[in-house]
Amino acid sequence: MENRKEVISSLFKLTRAMRRRPHREDHAFPFPVERMLSVLLDNDGATSRELCEILDVRPSSLSELIGKMEELGLVTRRASEEDKRAAQVLLTDGGREAASAIRESMDKRAAEFSACLTDEEAAQFCLLADKLSAHLESLTPEEDRPHGRCGRGRHEKACGGPHGPFRRHHRPFGRPF
Q1: Torsion of CA 126, 15, 165, 87, to 10 degrees
Q2: How confident is residue 3, by pLDDT bands cut at 50, 70 and 90?
Q3: Cβ pair 171, 56 in contact under 8 A
Q4: Cβ-contact 155, 147 below 8 angstroms
Q5: Strongest mean pLDDT among 35-39, 130-134, 159-163
Q6: pLDDT average, residue stretch 112-138
Q7: Which pLDDT tens digit goes with each residue over 10-29?
Q8: pTM for this model (two decimals)
Q9: CB of 41 closer than 8 Å to CB of 99
Q10: I want to staple 158 with a disulfide (CB 3.0 to 4.6 A). Which of 35, 50, 98, 123 is the partner?
């Protein structure tokens, strides 16, 4: 089918348009830090393992990111009272303030990016994007999936669904910075 070939072309076109959009100049932190702060705003006190699953990243990448965020004074770690082997990641006051500002900026950007869609079209787009993401995931061998290394069970519990707090499947960001 000719339309099937257009799916990938449309995805590339959308990706290029989003990358060309100058929306990063007002940000104080790299994207992975902003993303982590936003996730912690909803999951403050989550363990490293839970964050690994929510963000769909490797434990080593997450550990490096948390370390850099600790150096910046955005988060702290403390031993979990439920499981002394696990560490909880908590926002500092400065981290909470930055996360709130980032969330506001992300909400504004999301509204701006999707302003051309009706609510029904936005919902339909999300369903189709999730369906395509799930299909692409199914084509990837389990050992090549980042969540395959972290586990999957607590992911739904930690973030309320299989696609994280942003309602889509997250690709790993590799290097945190």
Answers
A1: 160
A2: confident
A3: yes
A4: yes
A5: 35-39
A6: 91
A7: 888 988 887 776 655 566 78
A8: 0.65
A9: yes
A10: 50
Tokens of 47: 């363990």
3-state secondary structure the chain: CHHHHHHHHHHHHHHHHHHHCCCCCCCCCCHHHHHHHHHHHHCCCCEHHHHHHHHCCCHHHHHHHHHHHHHCCCEEEEECCCCCCCEEEEECHHHHHHHHHHHHHHHHHHHHHCCCCCHHHHHHHHHHHHHHHHHHHHHCCHHHCHHHHHCCHHHHHHHCCCCCCCCCCCCCCCCCC
d(CA 93, CA 174): 28
Q: 101: which 2 tokens?
A: 């500002």
- Between CA 10 and CA 96 the distance in angstroms is 37
Report residue 47: phi and psi, to 5°.
-80, 165
Give the tokens for residue 91: 């926002």
Report helix angle 31-42 to 93-113, nearest 10: 100
